[in-house]
Amino acid sequence: QKFLLFKNFNLRQNKIQGSAKTSYRLKSEFVLPPEYSQGEVLPTALILADLTSEKISVDISTQISEGHVQVGSIITPDPHGPLLDLNMRAKQLPVSALASYLVKVGLLPPNAQPKFVWLNFSATIKGRLDQLKQLPIEITDVLLDGEFGEAKVPHLIRNPDGSFSGFVIDLPKVNVQKALDLFSAKGPDGVFSQFGELSGQLNFKSIKNFEFKGEWQDASLKFSRRGSRSEQQIENVKLDLSFAENRWQGRISNIELENGEFDGDIKLRFDPSFDEGQIEIASENLGTAAMGFSSGRLSGQHGAKGRKNLLDELGRFPRQQRDEG
After folding, report:
1. Residue 279, number of CB atoms within 10 A of its CB
2. Residue 291: burial class (beta carbons within 10 Å; 0-12, 13-18, 19+)
3. For the whole model, what pTM was predicted?
């Protein structure tokens, strides 16, 4: 059995005023064994504890880079064993310093590079002290913020085995390109010159299974039409996007283009790296059309009724840029 490692240990006995009872004040530095932190070596923390016959009050504080963690707990006697009531608050923790742990517990992919992103949250643990490793951790008020924007998680649970139950992430406004950069990922840059911003909710089941529902704004579609390279600003769309079974799938609707609207829906299917896939378009003017996507380029449109072409349809409105060539 492993125990906490204490350093600079100091214990002082005090008389409780107006009573024959005594209390004890403990002050020490300590290191949490890696078995309690998924094998991660945590920085040394400062512990202050007051011990009486009725309860033990413990305050713990530590720094993780520029971030701060504060823990307050009370241990009270019980016939079945001491009871723990622990509350934790973390402020401005750099996610880069926690990346290794977050990968191990399945909250980040191995290739993530979360630079300039900070984490805030609260957490509670309640139950018998001798069953500490079997107790779930309730985590609330999670805030991730950085250059990408911000993400909020109202509530999630860390299970005793170290895994996390599924949870919902609120995304008020996220810069898609900067978010992709955090995960060393790329989007379909053969189709879009700008990825714009997302706002909505992400239902996270695992790093390999999640769904987004919300709005996508200020993206810019690029294409080559009749020997010319053109762009069409997409001001706002409704987006349903999911990742499961190693595939992206999505549906775009309520499409608002610059100075106009596109009356139809677009369905997307892509591989994880957006290198291969298919785009299907359905509208009153086009009927149903399908376009292949390979090595970053659209190709092989088929199924549109008459001679109407998707690019003609999207090109009806003024474009931001048109380069002859």
Report:
1. 21
2. buried
3. 0.80
